[in-house]
Amino acid sequence: MGKSILVTGGTKGIGKAIIERFAKEGFDILTCARNQEDLERLKASIESEYPGVRVFAKKADLSRADEVRSFAEAAKAVAIPDVLVNNTGVFLPGAVHDEPAGNFELMMQTNLFSAYHLIRAFVQDMIQRKSGHIFSMGSIAGLTAYPNGGSYAVSKWAMLGMTKCLREELKPHQIKVTSILPGATLTESWAGVDLPVERFIPAEDIAESVWSAYNLSPRTVVEEVIIRPQLGDI
């Protein structure tokens, strides 16, 4: 197997754009999502458009620690990825003081704990290999507090903190760690919002930023990438 990238939540939006960008460069793909039909369509599309690229796709709900571990073990049987992108996430609006019970647990489990467990599943192999690049898909909400951000913002602040800690831990092992912090990006999560497309970042621009950060010399790391719509935050 040649170089490979693992992207969680790879069937839509930013995850799909990253997969397509790296497949274009000949990377084999490992990914997961909650919908089996979406995974099958993605696999067929990528392998058809990029002959020679292999796609491993497994249904998994990463809000569940047991399914994170099951996916990790199945993926490890295929490859230890050169690039790991923790992209899975869920957004439920609300305020910390009155959002529905369970929002905090769901978003922390999906947005943060899944990344924690997946990193731990692969990092020892990366350390032994002395190479790898881990990307955490954060958010502007992890930098700037705003009303109605609630537990989503809490999870993204925590993701940024975890990624900073990981960067320090993995420096001596030649493993790069990068936080991607996008603003409003044109994905299905904004469906139904009455705003022009010009107010959003194209998902392909996020993917290009990930590729550019990965594609530097071993002597250089991009620690954080902050990406906003040109016209400002929504």
From TrEMBL:
One Pfam match, given by its short name, reads adh_short
Q: Which Gene3D superfamilies match?
A: NAD(P)-binding Rossmann-like Domain
Family per similarity comment: Belongs to the short-chain dehydrogenases/reductases (SDR) family.
Kindly provide the name given to this protein in its UniProt entry: SDR family oxidoreductase
Q: Which InterPro entries match?
A: NAD(P)-bd_dom_sf, Sc_DH/Rdtase_CS, SDR_fam
Q: List keywords of the entry alphabetically.
A: Oxidoreductase
Q: Which domain of life is it from?
A: Bacteria
SUPFAM superfamilies named in the record:
NAD(P)-binding Rossmann-fold domains
| Provenance organism | Algoriphagus confluentis
What the entry lists under PROSITE patterns is as follows: ADH_SHORT (PS00061)
